[in-house]
Amino acid sequence: MLSQTQLDLWTGTEALLFDLDGVLTPTAVVHEHAWRQLFDEYLASVKKGPAYTDTDYFDHIDGKPRFDGVRDFLASRGITLPEGPIDDAPEHETVQGLGNRKNRIFNEIIENDGVAPYPGSARLVEAARRRGVKLAVVSSSRNAPAVLRAAGLADAFPVVVDGAVAARDGLPGKPDPATFVRAAELLGVPRQACIVVEDAVSGVQAGAGGEFRAVVAVNRGAGAEVLRAAGATHVVDDLAELL
């Protein structure tokens, strides 16, 4: 893996493996809003505290598969709920039900407000395509294809390993590197020629654990030192800095 020096992005790189939310699109903010609405309403209804805070998102939810986020947040409040079936109704107070309720809130926000890619990220994607570098999205979200379509990026990513693919193939979520490894396999590129691009601590840990060429972390609020401690070889505030 490359050391923490100036990254030569293109030499020796055959593929870029992007997280989606917070890396390509500002949907991480939408997810944060959806999680806050979900747990504000849930905690108020059960009258258990302490109240949901912004740090809860980064401590228990960010970068994880949706139902793991539900389970881990509830555990932080000493709450245990039945799992419920995977298609449980959003109105039901189960892990799956709350996860599906959050998904409904998220989709309502996207439908009402739309989504646009970060300009610097869109520039990097276009530069990679011009150079023939292969591209994949690796996201814990099951909404990744819909978000890519809404952002006008779907054609750029022939490989999408999202939460639905992970569930179908039995792949553990981040911080396990399995989903990034699968994306590299589907692209037909050795891991040592792939760069992982992430913003979440769990995603950086996944990249660091997978023997990839480098792990680029976009600092969208987690903190540069935190991301480096998680295994990032390079930290930027915007992906345009790599061009």
N-to-C span = 20 Å
User: Can you give the mean pLDDT?
Assistant: 93
Estimated radius of gyration = 18 Å
Shape descriptor: globular
Share in helix: 40-55%
Unreliable stretches: none
Give me the strand/helix succession. Answer: EHHHHHEHEHHEHEHE
Number of helices: 10
What percent of residues are in strands?
5-15%
- Profile the largest sheet: 6 strands, parallel
Question: How are strands sequenced across the largest beta sheet?
Answer: 3-2-1-4-5-6
Counting DSSP E segments of at least 2 residues, the number of strands comes to 6
The assigned structural class equals alpha/beta
What this model shows, in words?
The longest helix is centred in the N-terminal third of the chain and has 20 residues, at 27-46. Helix 1 (27-46) packs across helix 4, helix 2 packs across helix 3 and helix 3 crosses helix 4 (95-113). The chain has a six-stranded parallel beta sheet, sandwiched between helices. The protein has helices spanning 27-46, 54-61, 66-76, 95-113, 119-130, 144-150, 163-169, 178-187, 201-208, 224-230; strands spanning 15-18, 134-138, 159-161, 194-198, 214-218, 234-236. With 243 residues, the chain is an alpha/beta fold.
